[in-house]
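From the shared-data thread, chain only:
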Amino acid sequence: MMTTTGADSMPRSARPASAIQPVDATWPYTARTLFKTMTVTAAVRAALISAAMVIASAKSASAQATAIVVRVAADDDGSTFRYAQVFHEIGDWVAADVGYIDYGNTAYRELFAGFGRKLLKKPTLMILGELYYLQAAGSASAGEKYILPWVLTAFSLTPRIRGEAVYFPYLPLTGSATLQHVVERAKLEYAWSRVKIGGGYGAYQFSGTDWQHKPFATLTVTPPAVGDIEFWVQRVPRGGVQLQVRYFHVIK
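Structure, as tokens:
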């Protein structure tokens, strides 16, 4: 945070009378200030124009797509989970990524935003990295803030056997926040033209406690022009089962 010092950082009402001089006695200072202001304004305009040209060039030269992600889940004890996300890709970049999470009510919810890039892209292997800022909200939160470095690894063993893994930690930015680790999924699938079946593993650790292990099985269908609809059956740490529906759609 920058601060200023001296008479010009004070409100006019707080300045001593000796600091308030006639205009004709301060015109060199006024001219210098005006010149500096014009110079800074011109530099800012040039930077903005350059950035706009770079973005426009990237947009015209690269493929673009917007993806919509929606997930809902329910445990056998009645607890629920809701998730929504939208992100926009320009070439290898995730230019904007925003989302929302809650657990059946708004007493505790999470809002996040980030950006990222494909770090490695080969015919059978892709690694995507993103950096998120996450803010907790609601009456049950303490205003926790986190940074989330998020990594997706996707691979193909054969044209029909594919896998992916997602890991991210919650890195605390505030005293009320707690270090957490999430293996969101490590999944292997067998794919036909519009159907995939698979299974995998998820895990979670909170503040140095024991890891919670959550294996799952999946079925994905892809109706024409609709997107992926994925059904999960996942074991939860309490010994019950969670049912999930995950929707993913890309708009080009």
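Confidence is low (pLDDT under 50) at residues 1-41.
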